[in-house]
Design goal:
Elements (H helix, E strand, L loop, with lengths): L1 H17 L6 H8 L3 H8 L2 H16 L13 H16 L2 H15 L3 H10 L1 H17 L8 H13 L2 H6 L7 H22 L4
Length: about 200
């Protein structure tokens, strides 16, 4: 398990910096301090290693237990927890670096990496958010005619222009930028609740 963890940590670092095509299994093995055979024995091939690296990072920053409807009905607090976690994830240096690497790989004719990233990242978090919103609506906290559309709207509000500006290098990842992301998250929650909070 220690070797597997070391390989995953190395893969997460190298894929962010060099992209999929620019990261070799030899490089991952050297960075992890293991043999290339050990890397293959744990992950099979580079595609599987990439998927596992993305999956591990997403679950570190957005664990499943973030998406839990509170028993006491504090729906704003629960949405804020989700919003802040998403804001930190979407604007983190790791995620920005990964998106840049993936866009470079897609330009080189390797769109399957983007598909993997979508499935393990945004698609997973959207599915978890939809489950949360369904449960919140069933509990009487929200009035949601279309849960899927509401989930997409919420994530779009959270993203704002912060991720795009960082992706293009217009702002860095300084504390002031994080404060802006968290303030945007709180504003997104309040706007979402104005649209969908159930009137008592």
């Amino acid at each position: 398990m220690e070797k597997r963890a070391a390989i995953l940590a190395a893969a997460k670092r190298l894929f962010i910096v060099h992209g999929f095509e620019g990261t070799s299994m030899d490089a991952v093995a050297a960075d992890a301090g293991v043999s290339k055979l050990t890397v293959y024995s744990h992950f099979g091939d580079k595609d599987s290693l990439f998927r596992e690296a993305v999956r591990a990072r997403c679950r570190e920053m957005l664990p499943d237990d973030v998406y839990v409807v509170p028993i006491d009905g504090a729906i704003r607090d629960a949405l804020l927890l989700i919003a802040r976690a998403h804001a930190r994830l979407m604007t983190s240096p790791e995620v920005i670096g990964t998106w840049r690497a993936i866009l470079s790989d897609c330009r080189e004719g390797n769109p399957r990496m983007g598909q993997m990233l979508w499935e393990e990242g945004p698609a997973r978090s959207q599915a978890l958010l939809e489950q949360f919103l369904h449960a919140a609506a069933d509990a009487g906290h929200l009035d949601l005619p279309d849960v899927h559309r509401a989930a997409v709207q919420f994530l779009s509000l959270l993203k704002g222009d912060l991720q795009t500006r960082r992706l293009f290098g217009c702002i860095n990842c300084a504390e002031s930028a994080e404060a802006e992301a968290l303030a945007n998250a709180e504003g997104a929650v309040d706007m979402f609740l104005r649209a969908y909070a159930r009137e008592l």
